[in-house]
Structure formats: C-alpha cells, structure tokens
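Follow-up to my post from last week.
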Amino acid sequence: MRQNWWKVLGAILLLYSVVAGFLGDVPKLFILHETIRNLYFHVPMWFSMTFLYFISVVYSIKYLSSGKPEHDFMAVESVNVGIIFCLFGLLTGMLWANVTWGDPWPSDPKLNGSAIATLMYLAYLVLRNALEEEQKRAKISALYNVFAFPIMIVLLFVLPRMTDSLHPGNGGNSTFSDIDMDNQMRRVFYPAVLGWILIGTWVMTLRYRVRILDYEDKNISA
Amino acid sequence: MSGVDRLFMLPFCLPGISSLASHVSYLIPIFAPMDFFNQVRFLVHKEIILEWRSKYALNGILLYVVSTVFVCYQSFRSLDNNGPVWNALFWIILLFASLNAITKSFVQESRGRQLYYYTLVSPQAVILSKIIYNVLLMLLLSCVAYFAYSTIFRNEVGDPLLYFVSIIMGSISFACVFTMVSGISVKANSSGTLMAILSFPIIIPLLLLLIKLSKNAMDGLDRSVSYDELGVLVAINVIVVSVSLLLFPYLWRD
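User reply:
Got it. Predicted complex:
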C-alpha cells in the first residue's frame, strides 16, 4: 500500500475531476459556453502524453548507457501509452474545434504540429517492427527516440508560439488563464492534469510488467 | 494449418492431380478453368498471408502515404491559397531528390570496411565527414535543380540573392537531417520507405521555415523580415549536427 498510494491518488483525482468537471460552475462565455468543460479533458491529455514521452526518452538514454532490456521495455511502453493519449487529445480537440471554430480540422500550426508528432512516434513503432534482432532494435529505436523528442517539443510548444494560431496562448493570443479561467476552474483543472498523468503512468507500468513477464517466460522456455 | 504450409500442400490439394490428363491441364491452365481459378485463389490467399505476416512493411507503406500527403499539404497550405505554387513545388522536388541522393550514403559501405574505419578513426570524424560530403552534394544538386527549374518554369523572384541563400540553407538542412536518419535506416536493412517515414516528420518544420523564407524572397520583402527565420534555421541545424555527433558513436558500434 505504501508503494501504491499514488495510484489511489490518481484514481481519486480523476474521479473528482470528472464529477466536478461536469457539475461544477464554469464562467459563461460567448462561443465557448459549456464546451469550456472540455478544458478538463483536452489539455490534460497532451500534458500526460508529453510526460509519458519524456519518461520514454529518459529510459532510451538510460538504455544507451546501460544496455538493459528493461529500460527499452519502459521506453516502448511509454510511447505506446503516450500515443493513446495523443489520439484522445486529437479526438477531444476535434470535437471542441468543431463547436468553437466551426471545423474539426482548421489549419492551425498547433494541430498540424501534433499530427506531425504523431506521425513521428508511429514511425518509431514501425522502425521497431522493421528490426528483427532484439538488441539492435532496442538500440536503434532508442537513438531515434532521442532524436525525435526535441523535435516533438519544438513542434508542439515552440513553433505554434511563433506563428499565428487559433489556440490560446499562441501567436499573440492571450492565454486561457489570463481572462477565461477563474479560480473555480483552476480547482478542477490542476487535479485533472495530475490525475490523468498518474493514471497514464499506472497503465504504462502495468504494460511494462506484462512485458517483463513475457520476456522472462520466453527466456526460461528458450 | 498456416498459410505457407498450405501452399506446400497446393499440388496435393488440387483435384484430379493423379490422372495424366488433368496433370497436363495443370500445366496448361487455359484448358482447365476450374483448376486455374483454384490456383489463382490459393496464390492470392498466399499473397495476403505473406503481407499480413510482415505487417511492418504494410504499415510502413501506409505511413509513407500519410506522411507524403502531409508534407504536400503543409507546403501548399502555407501559400495562403493564391500564392504561387511554383515555390512549394520546387521545395518538394528538392526534398525527394535529396532523399534519394542521401539514402545511399551508408549503403555503399560494406561491413568490413566499416570495421576497418572503426579501428582507424573516431566515429565523430566519420559522421562529420559524411555530413560535409552530403552538404556539398546537396549544394551541387540544388543549384542544378534551381537552374533547370527556373529556366523551364520561368518565374519572377523579387530578391534573387535571398532566394539563393534560402536554397543554400535548404541544402545544408536536408543534408544534416538525412545523413543521420540514413545511418539509422540502413541498420534496419530497409529501403527508401523507412528512410522517408523516419525523416519526413523531422524535416517538415524545416521545410515550412524554408518555404516561408523563400516566399519572403520571392515577394522581395525587406531582408530584416527574414532574419528570425534564418536564425531558427541555423539554430535547428546546429542542434541536429550536435545531436548527430553525440548519437552516432552508439549507432556505429555493432
């Protein structure tokens, strides 16, 4: 129990953010109306994805220096779970964009950046499948991961801020917190971010443990 | 029974294989429509199963299509609908040309020769030399491409010097990114598809900056407008080269 407190915390925070997110008070704003509640779901998805990709790149670097297969498993499972968060982030974003911007896929630098980042991590998975030998696969995909991560950061968080964007906080737009987000929303938003990150990490560790079991099973029977 | 096993059973499965008459018709399928269709059916089945077995190849092609569509969409979108297609098309031609030129940069080295280098020189020297060679190659290639393209497709360029600078920056950027990625993709013993899907997502931000820079040059805008694009391009190239220098020693040891 002492080791698992964060899983309980994640579940409680998530439950709280879903209940409070749908029932709590939100500011009445033009165009956004009730869709502002999507903030509790859309933004945490991207934060969780970035967090998981960050874990992945840390373990890729660790793998390059240590050569332990466990580190490689950690890296690949983080990407697997991160891609799911990325897909949900795109999905919630498209729903939201359809209501507020009137088009599920307006050409916005942040949207396109996220699509490119998705392509990059899908390419990472294809690269892994293209390599047969386990050690080689681990090493080369770790290299590509280290190469890809900074570019993902540039695409999602740097380039959109330099050009015109529809997203708040980008291209000279004011950020959400400046005008729209009152303290009431903050009380739901931050727990939601933390909750999703913890749940994502939990799913990742579960998948990691399954993979370790598979690996040991294969090594014993071989 | 799996698909390939079934393939080995193919001659035994075909009806009437024992009799001489149908054996002949097995060799000349036109006279025995049923046998012929059976064979085709089995072979199509085999193709599907083989494709399904090596799913990564199929996934690779699918990702290649999506990436290519995305590269084109991104390049043409930045032209604000009425801008000249001329510029975007030039960069796409240059992109695919450089992809083909640089893919081979590690392929032509045999394993033995790599081992020989390993005993003689440091890995950083190898990657740096490859990058420099590819930059030179790309400079030549892009100058020829620009010359041919602009003489055949005549177009007004407002600031030719800045356009030329953007081409030089483009050659350097493409060479820096593709050299490292080709080093990665050659380890997978794979063809150009893997190279393309690995490098397109990385090259798109660079390509967008280049298109913006060269668009500024075409419109003949004041040069001070383009300084920040040039700065970002130089910064990205410095990052790519230093990451390559850091990572290549790991890639090389095999």
